[in-house]
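Reviewer 2 asked us to include a model.

Predict the structure of this chain.
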Amino acid sequence: MNELNALWLPLLVGLAVGFGLNPLVDTLPTFRRSSLPADNGVYVRLQRRPCWLALLNGVAYTLAWWKFPSPVEALAVSLYSSVLLLILIVDLETRLIPHVLIYPATFIALIGSTVDPRLTPQSALLGGVVGFVIFYAVAWLTRGGIGWGDVNLAAFVGCITGFPDVLTGLTVGILLGGLISLGLLVSRRVPRNTFIPYGPFLCLGGWYAMMWG
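Predicted model (structure tokens):
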């Protein structure tokens, strides 16, 4: 019972931070970007987005503080969960993964690996390199099917999960993306050659690997 009572604080903090993330969803895509999203892409704008952001972020914080015994671990996972959630929503609505967010987040993840008990600097760096290389190869093979933002996101996922858990995160993300894309095509909800944002699937895969990899 005491443990459950202790989770009220991270829940409330997570809800407050989630509400604070909402303005960033509109602000981040306005920064300079290298390329524009395709006109025939899938865009999803969440109804009552502030509420969803707050709720999902609150749940993520609560799970982090319930799962990890170390406050440093729980704090790091909470921070990375907020970044992943922010990227997920921005990519859904704009098909963009802003460099102004992903680069500082990756740098912070590498620095954080020096104090995060889940990781070592070596495993975080190796995870980032593996994620980057795998998705760079996928982007090259698909000739634009995967964007540069997805490549950077894969590197970030590697930095927050480390090696070999990055492989779990990428695998889950690829499977989720494939299944959802196949379902949309089979149900004829989208035509062929439609660009579907891949970032949200990578975010979900990375969060799963970070929590249970």
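Confidence is low (pLDDT under 50) at residues 34-38. Residues 2-38+47-212 form one domain. We have added this to the supplementary material.
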